């Protein structure tokens, strides 16, 4: 197989060196696999040929971008070929007049936006991993970010895909028109499929004009319920903030400890808003948000300049970092950290998470995108301590029970991968059987990223 | 031992932020050739994996530029880990051939380059120490002494106004070996020489020497930009009609946090414009960590990219490290050492 792979991409872009394979056997989670070969394709045609080899030898094939995923999604748990897609990183077409761009999947999210900004546009889904994640990975995981409350998730921005199927056939989904009602929505089927059905080699994306201006503001609350009430009231008022983030007392405490100069008040909850659009409407909407938050018992502060804006956002950005930095000898593990619940239930969920943490003697730092009900739960442990892992899993089970009872979702933006695969049947019921039927129909040999999503 | 770094290795959450910033990863693209990959391979080494081709390439293509360490959200220190991984590689007999050459060069000839000529050949007779004493010693370093004597002379001419002299028998500070995971073989000799000179302050124009000597000597060690910024009002500087930019050497900037002093001096002399990435985010010239020695083509590719960060139409890129100077110049850059600029302004 090695010689056949070399024949496709040349000897320089395929390896079976044990050191290299070791590096390609991880992502950001604690799932570990063992790659047998790594190949770095440059074109869809090469991908198709490589997939044919995998099919011929009945060998697993796992596409991988930056492997910044948190669920083991790109870890070759069943061995086989790892396809490093980062060499396919070009913007192939930029059609500003059509509000569209065609890209290869290996392009880094931030680099895409750096290019689009030059033309007065941007690609709105904005993961925290923008600096390093690939757009292909974002598509594979159905990702999003802080601005999804106004702009939606990646699902809302992909018009069409080029996909290599397990047979080696290259298909195109969707179309160039802004909308279609033609047949099954294969584009959306592949988005969030985590490479279990095929490998995306090209994507046609909707792009959005840059807003004229934006404003950042913070509201602090003595009671977390008031923050929740304020969030629901703002969304019900007709204002759609570009971002609406929440930090609970544990997250605020962590940020204060890590950087006291940010002068974050000692409160039980804070909301962070970003409002963007035309200057006049932003001014009006910020005023309205302040009024609503104050009516709910909050104290508000609007950033007056870029420096203040940066300081407000810094508080939010520091949370994830604080979890590892404040716990010497421990590192953050990504378990039970990406739940989604109905917006009105966010404050309840935040309280519940703390309650569950106390029950298992674990300190949990909670924050997230309240605007779309998505919460992140930071847990730091000594990963070599089996007892701590047991407690983490007990916390996870309890949190997931509550989430499902509220009608929520276990991963709101980070995908299923390995670490949430066992919950798929419970989360989706008979719908999961349909998913499995689709998988079997498209990939009868189960070579496409096997083991993920329980497939 | 690499096992001593296991806490730091585990601190890496493999988020991948470093892979987007690593200039070597940008060129080579393999997962092993970025800081996250290097941390993984250090872990593999600690777990008893035998060094493979990819592992060797991984550790020895690290520029030790510290970009990954300074931006790591978890507070891990990949550049420290790499140096210790290299130490482990040496212990296991997997050092690259140029490591042994450098070691032999320093042991036999006192310099990392293997030059057999006298180190102080460029020093004017009246500025030699000649077994005398001086409060200020100018430390030139191997590269400047043997390859960039114009820079050495510029530095010494300026510093001699403050009584600076050159040691009679300066030998390699140890930086090239330390960065490759070895030991500083001439440290004790240099210590004795410095003690004999009675120096209170040691000034060097080399970023690598500055980092290494600051970390190993007990007397005051300054980079020439720090010394000159302190005395800038005492220098007869005239404005020059140049528009220049400044390349922050990694071992002076990110590693030692010397950012303002070079800018203070340059702005006194000519029009200044920052490069596209500067200060703590300045990209590496590509020459550090033994990469210029072991992977010359790769070093030049990184340097070429760095040159693209320079503003359009500038007259010179100024730097404050002979390694950066050499590497950027080899890649086609019009480069001046800061001492040369200062001396031009003084004449």
From TrEMBL, chain A:
GO terms for molecular function: FAD binding; oxidoreductase activity. Keywords: FAD, Flavoprotein, Oxidoreductase. The keyword Oxidoreductase applies. The keyword Cell membrane does not apply. It comes from the Archaea. The lineage of its organism: Archaea, Methanobacteriati, Methanobacteriota, Stenosarchaea group, Methanomicrobia. Residues 31-210 form the FAD-binding PCMH-type domain. This is FAD linked oxidase. It comes from Methanocella paludicola (strain DSM 17711 / JCM 13418 / NBRC 101707 / SANAE). Belongs to the FAD-binding oxidoreductase/transferase type 4 family. InterPro entries: FAD-bd_oxidored_4_C (IPR004113), FAD-bd_PCMH (IPR016166), FAD-bd_PCMH-like_sf (IPR036318), FAD-bd_PCMH_sub2 (IPR016169), FAD-linked_Oxase-like_C (IPR016164), FAD-linked_OxidoTrans_Type4 (IPR051914), Oxid_FAD_bind_N (IPR006094), Vanillyl_alc_oxidase_C-sub2 (IPR016171). Its cofactor is FAD. Pfam families: FAD-oxidase_C, FAD_binding_4.
From TrEMBL, chain B:
SUPFAM superfamilies: alpha-helical ferredoxin (SSF46548). Keywords: 4Fe-4S, Iron, Iron-sulfur, Metal-binding, Oxidoreductase. Residues 2-33, 53-84 form the 4Fe-4S ferredoxin-type domain. It comes from the Archaea. The keyword Metal-binding applies. InterPro entries: 4Fe4S_Fe-S-bd, 4Fe4S_Fe_S_CS, Cys_rich_dom, HdrC_iron-sulfur_subunit, Helical_ferredxn. GO terms for molecular function: 4 iron, 4 sulfur cluster binding; metal ion binding; oxidoreductase activity. It holds the Pfam family Fer4_8. GO terms for cellular component: plasma membrane. Belongs to the HdrC family. This is CoB--CoM heterodisulfide reductase iron-sulfur subunit D. The lineage of its organism: Archaea, Methanobacteriati, Methanobacteriota, Stenosarchaea group, Methanomicrobia.
């Amino acid at each position: 197989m090695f010689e056949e792979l070399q024949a496709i991409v040349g000897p320089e872009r395929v390896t079976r060196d044990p050191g290299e394979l070791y590096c390609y056997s991880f992502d950001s989670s604690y799932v570990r696999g063992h790659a047998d070969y790594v190949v770095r394709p440059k074109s869809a045609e090469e991908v198709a040929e490589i997939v044919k080899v995998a099919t011929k030898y009945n060998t697993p094939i796992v596409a991988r971008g930056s492997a910044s995923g948190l669920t083991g999604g790109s870890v070759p748990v069943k061995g086989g070929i790892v396809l490093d897609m980062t060499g396919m990183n070009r913007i192939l077409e930029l059609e500003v007049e059509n509000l569209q761009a065609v890209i290869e999947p290996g392009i880094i999210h931030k680099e895409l936006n750096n290019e689009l900004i030059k033309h007065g546009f941007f690609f709105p889904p904005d993961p925290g991993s923008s600096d390093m994640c690939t757009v292909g990975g974002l598509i594979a995981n159905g990702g999003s970010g802080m601005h999804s409350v106004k702009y939606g998730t990646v699902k809302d921005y992909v018009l069409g895909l080029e996909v290599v199927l397990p047979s080696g056939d290259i298909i195109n989904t969707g179309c160039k028109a802004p909308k279609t009602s033609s047949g099954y929505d294969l584009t959306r089927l592949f988005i969030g499929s985590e490479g279990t059905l095929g490998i995306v080699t090209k994507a046609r994306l909707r792009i959005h004009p840059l807003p004229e201006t934006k404003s950042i503001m913070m509201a602090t609350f003595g009671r977390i319920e008031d923050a929740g009430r304020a969030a629901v009231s703002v969304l019900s008022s007709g204002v759609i903030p570009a971002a609406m983030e929440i930090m609970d007392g544990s997250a605020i405490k962590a940020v204060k400890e890590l950087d006291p100069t940010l002068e974050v008040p000692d409160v039980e909850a804070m909301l962070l808003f970003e409002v963007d659009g035309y200057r006049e409407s932003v001014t009006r909407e910020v005023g309205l948000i302040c009024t609503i938050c104050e009516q709910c018992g909050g104290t508000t502060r609007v950033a007056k300049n870029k420096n203040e804006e940066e300081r407000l956002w810094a508080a939010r950005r520091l949370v994830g970092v604080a979890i590892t930095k404040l716990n010497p000898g421990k590192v953050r593990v990504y378990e039970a950290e990406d739940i989604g619940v109905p917006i009105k239930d966010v404050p309840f969920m935040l309280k519940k998470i703390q309650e569950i943490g106390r029950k298992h003697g674990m300190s949990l730092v909670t924050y997230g995108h309240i605007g779309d009900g998505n919460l992140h739960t930071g847990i730091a442990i000594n990963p070599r301590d089996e007892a701590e892992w047991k407690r983490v899993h007990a916390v996870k089970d309890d949190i997931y029970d509550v989430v499902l009872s509220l009608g929520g979702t276990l991963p709101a933006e980070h995908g299923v991968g390995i670490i949430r695969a066992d919950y798929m049947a419970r989360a989706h019921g008979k719908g999961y059987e349909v998913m499995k039927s689709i998988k079997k129909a498209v990939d009868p040999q189960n070579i496409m990223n096997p083991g993920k999503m329980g497939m | 031992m690499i096992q001593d770094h296991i806490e730091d290795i585990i601190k890496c959450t493999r988020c991948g932020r470093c892979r987007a910033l690593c200039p070597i990863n940008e060129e080579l693209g393999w997962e092993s050739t970025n800081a996250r990959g290097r941390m993984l391979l250090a872990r593999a080494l600690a777990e008893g994996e035998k060094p493979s081709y990819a592992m060797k390439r991984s550790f020895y293509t690290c520029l030790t530029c510290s970009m990954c360490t300074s931006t790591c959200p978890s507070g891990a220190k990949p550049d420290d880990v790499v140096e210790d991984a290299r130490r482990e590689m040496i212990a296991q007999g997997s050092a690259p051939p140029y490591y042994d050459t450098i070691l032999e060069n320093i042991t036999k000839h006192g310099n990392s380059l293997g030059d057999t000529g006298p180190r102080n050949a460029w020093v004017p007779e009246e500025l030699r120490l000649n077994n005398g004493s001086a409060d200020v010693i100018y430390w030139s370093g191997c590269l400047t002494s043997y390859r960039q004597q114009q820079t050495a002379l510029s530095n010494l001419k300026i510093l001699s106004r403050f009584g600076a002299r050159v040691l009679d028998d300066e030998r390699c500070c140890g930086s090239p070996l330390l960065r490759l995971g070895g030991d500083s073989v001439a440290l004790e000799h240099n210590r004795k020489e410095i003690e004999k000179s009675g120096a209170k302050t040691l000034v060097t124009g080399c970023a690598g020497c500055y980092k290494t000597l600051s970390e190993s000597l007990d007397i005051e060690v300054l980079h020439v930009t720090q010394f000159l910024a302190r005395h800038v009002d005492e220098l007869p500087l005239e404005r020059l009609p140049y528009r220049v930019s400044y390349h922050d050497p990694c071992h002076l900037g990110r590693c030692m946090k010397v950012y303002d002093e070079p800018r203070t001096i340059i702005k006194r002399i000519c029009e200044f414009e920052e490069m596209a990435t500067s200060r703590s985010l300045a990209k590496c010239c590509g020459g550090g960590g033994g990469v210029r020695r072991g992977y010359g083509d790769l070093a030049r590719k990184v340097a070429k990219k760095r040159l693209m960060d320079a503003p359009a139409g500038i007259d010179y890129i100024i730097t404050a490290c002979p390694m950066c100077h050499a590497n950027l110049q080899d890649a086609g850059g019009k480069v001046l050492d800061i001492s040369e600029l200062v001396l031009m302004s003084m004449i």
